[in-house]
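Hi again,

Forgot to attach this to my earlier email, sorry! This is the prediction with alpha-D-glucopyranose bound. I've pasted everything inline since the attachment limit keeps bouncing my files.
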Amino acid sequence: MTLLQSNPSWWQSAIVYQIYPWSFQDSNGDGIGDLPGILGRLDYLNGSADSLGVDAIWLSPIYPSPMHDFGYDVQDYCDIDPRFGTMADFDRLISEAHHRGIRVVMDLVLNHTSDQHPWFIESRASRTSAKRDWYYWADGKGRRRPPNNWAARFGGSVWAHDRHTDQYYLHSFLPEQPDLNWTNPAVREAVFDVVRFWLARGVDGFRLDAINWLGKETSWPDNPRRLAWRSYYRQVHRYDRDQPHTHEALRALRASLKDRGDILLVGETSSDTPGGPAAFYGDGSNELHEVFDFRLLRSTWHPEAFRRLILESDRAVPEGGWPPVVFSNHDQSRHIDRYGAGGDPIGRARAAALLLLTLRGTPFLYYGEELGLRDGRLKRSHLRDPYTIRYWPWKIGRDPARTPMPWDDSPQAGFTSGAPWLPLSQGWRQTNVASEQQDPGSMLSLYKRLIRLKKGSKALTVGTYHPIDGGPQECLLFRREFHMEGQRESLLIAVNFSAQARKISLPTAFSELTRTGRLILSTDPQRAGDPWTADDFYLGPDEGIVVSVQ
Ligand code: GLC
Ligand code: CA
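Structure tokens for the complex follow:
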């Protein structure tokens, strides 16, 4: 870790803000967010005294797409969907963002394209098409039986039958998302061209979608079965993901970025991947810089689970790699609702905000999280995402976390002058940017304080993480430390996961360190500036604090 402490990359101390382009800001009244809309809101993100203060935005896909999977079905990797604007808008976004100190991270969907991509149209045209082997095609087992039992992530078989050529093509997600054949060197070259295209336009990094799906065992053996209620989980995904070939492709991608500057590659992988997501760091210097670990995101709000998962994921990151911290994204129910279940959602979301900004790693902040935006209470007729529609009877789904960003209390919350593509979340008349900007006790004000604190602190950005064991069971305690060439910063972080006040009562091992300090931030806005001594400090219900114990 020493190397990265002395010469950190921008992404080590950055806060990345995820924009779901459909939902951030509409500029032309069609009810769909767009690039000019984002441009008009950049000051909210950074560059002025009352901005949130984030250093980078990650844009979920903005490429031309039939939008079966809301942009994760790409029809053209090198253009902008007209719903979102033009390439000129994009170039302006890059320069205006950079001007405000905001880097831009693109979403790269490399495992699959849209079935409307010209590559696939050519591939499916005939068995002898020049691009036939850009995708995976196989014969069925006799009449009307697919080549094997593999299950698609969004339900059903991964195999779709093509009547015209009487073969099956493989799709790990929707049938409209055929998987690219990464064993084909021509595919790899075409994708690296795409990467170079966006780098030349000035982007600062890529979030690699579903990256552990790239490699498949192409002798097509059946996956072993197991018991579960949904088809995707009724098998062990031994052959359809996480093959050695994926690592080889990532090493080639990383090598292609050599001498391209400080570009971030952050990967999305499935959490039950063998070896864990950390396998995709490679040796720490030859695959991805950061890899999402969703175990914490999937956890319940429980201090013991957090203690164990934080430690496990922190320790798994090899030297040279860097962990992202993520509690919410566009694929999950928002964490205020997940962690809040059975307790006070706002109190817990405030505590989670403190963890997001104080754990070791790059915080990925999903739009609206900073307001305490809740999942939308949607009716069946509102749903747009095919996965959400398919599993709606079981209340599993993604649309509730994709509702429009509420900016103010005007009609449609300042998001659009038309009819929004998804309804606003409940509570938007209070939970919106304009009203929270005014209120020092709001979630937004807390996020701003935490972001400023993190950016001004070596310990919180590049420092090391040390759990403190033996404290009260309902609390999570840890230290962040930075020591270098005479500089020394030591912070204690404590979060009360219970609804009762708790005395911190530090374990005796801690007495070797300073037991007095200065409370520099509490999620309880009444408390800032209180003196702090380890032996008689009570944390309020759901309270989180940062103490300088220098
Ligand atoms: C990733 C994306 C998700 C998408 C899927 C297929 O998991 O985050 O939104 O549906 O990949 O591209
Ligand atoms: Ca629009």
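The chain has three domains: 10-113+184-452, 118-170, 464-548. The longest strand covers residues 475-484.

That should be everything now.

G.
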